[in-house]
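Renewal narrative, Specific Aim 1. Our central claim is that a sequence can be written position by position from structural information alone. The example that follows is taken directly from our test logs and has not been curated for this report. It begins with the structure tokens describing the chain, in the order in which they were read.
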């Protein structure tokens, strides 16, 4: 039963969703001004691991985000245990990296509080979640497509285009954190800002988004011309366009918290869709028989 490929696939998918969800809940903490709702770590406040009445709703929101690690962590560990039962390095390596990422997130979350929401530490906290999604997605994808090896199904020039797309997608996320760290939603009135001009950073971020859109469209057209599968790239293009609409609307409506939260969720969607493109353009080798 515990060596069932179906069980591993479901747990891996749950772990991937949880790792993306914690980005959204972390954003809710910042957008509601609850970044220091729990004013210390690992305790919520001196002498208590749970929020006290004095901390109010901000303490409950911050504590709620912290307790989500109680879901993300066990799911990551369960996926690792199940992967170990399959005795396949292609599964155990990403599963181990997810567990390591979750542990690192806990420590970095503590540092975020102790530095009073330093914008660069907050950005690192977000980006570490983005990094953790990479092995989480790889694990889920590999459970759905068992393989010994993987090889590109596109020619050299297109591989370069895929690499450029993935790097640009990552750059868009990094620049997004700089925009956030320069803007109004700091997470708490005591939190510092980067000192950069928010409008200049937003423009730089927008320029990177347009580059990403251009690369995605170019890859989609190239795949169509060569007869290679382009469904994943098409999905990415749609997700990018939706995310772009949210981004423009939130900017011109002066960053309402609901739209900023939706934009953070969209950032995870863009990244996951980007990872899907990478994996989709690498064909699995000989399938390994399922273990009952």
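The sequence written for that structure reads:
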């Amino acid at each position: 039963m515990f060596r069932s490929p179906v069980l591993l696939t479901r747990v891996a998918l749950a772990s991937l969703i949880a790792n993306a969800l914690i980005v959204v809940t972390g954003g809710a903490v910042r957008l509601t001004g609850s970044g220091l709702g729990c004013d210390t770590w690992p305790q919520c406040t001196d002498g208590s691991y749970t929020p006290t009445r004095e901390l109010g709703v901000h303490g409950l929101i911050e504590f709620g985000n912290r307790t989500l690690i109680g879901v993300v962590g066990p799911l990551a560990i369960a996926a690792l245990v199940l992967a170990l039962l399959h005795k396949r390095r292609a599964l155990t390596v990403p599963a181990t990296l997810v567990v390591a990422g979750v542990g690192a997130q806990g420590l970095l979350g503590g540092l975020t509080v102790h530095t009073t929401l330093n914008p660069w530490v907050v950005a690192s906290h977000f980006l570490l979640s983005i990094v953790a999604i990479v092995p989480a997605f790889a694990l889920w994808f590999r459970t759905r497509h068992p393989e010994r090896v993987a090889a590109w199904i596109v020619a050299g020039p297109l591989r370069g285009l895929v690499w450029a797309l993935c790097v640009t997608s990552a750059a868009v996320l990094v620049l997004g954190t700089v925009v956030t760290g320069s803007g109004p939603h700091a997470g708490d009135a005591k939190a510092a800002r980067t000192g950069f001009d928010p409008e200049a950073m937003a423009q730089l971020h927008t320029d990177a988004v347009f580059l990403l859109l251009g690369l995605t469209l170019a890859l989609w057209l190239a795949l169509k011309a060569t007869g290679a599968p382009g469904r994943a790239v098409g999905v990415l293009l749609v997700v990018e366009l939706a995310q772009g609409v949210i981004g423009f609307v939130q900017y011109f409506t002066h960053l309402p918290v609901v739209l900023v939260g939706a934009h953070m969720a969209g950032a995870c969607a863009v990244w996951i869709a980007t990872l899907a493109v990478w994996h989709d353009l690498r064909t699995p080798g000989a399938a390994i028989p399922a273990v009952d």
